[in-house]
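I am hoping you can look over what I have pasted underneath with an eye to the fold:
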Amino acid sequence: MRLLSTPTSPYARKVRIALREKNLSCEVETVDLRDPAHAGKAQNPLGKIPVLLRNDGEAIYDSAVILQYLELFHPQPPLLPSDPAEKIRCLRLEALADGIMDATIAWVQEHRRSKDCQDPGLLKKQRDKVQDGLAFLQTQSRDWRHDSALDLGQIGAIAAIGYVDLRAPELLVPYVDLHRWYQSLRDRPSVAETAPQ
């Protein structure tokens, strides 16, 4: 398998953590999204990453679909609970983490515009989404142990927190318990090896 990725993509990081947690070998190919002819464009009509290329050449995208593919075709160790209610809880957390990543990206992109072109309403809306999502994750993280198996919800949380920490660390300041949980995982191979650069 081969994963098309960028060093800072939180969505690709979710996949890379899952691959490592499942002990699956996968070549990671870094793509430059600024290049209109980057490798991901040939595999995903939207030109988005991550894209997982199976050994038979079939492309799988986006991160949520890739993670489901890994669970279906490489079920051990499982990253989703077998209990239906727990599985939905886990998938809901993964969706929340994706929303935090989406809002962080929108907030960062708006901040990169010249000050006179920024939309204060959009900045506040995206900041509120990030902070509301982080606040909810913090309530959940109080029950998470750093030395137990990770599930897809926790993997999503790791990717989201890591991305916020990279791009907008000031938004993490109020969430001390959540940041402490994240830091407790920094030596876990799947987390350390996938840290955004």
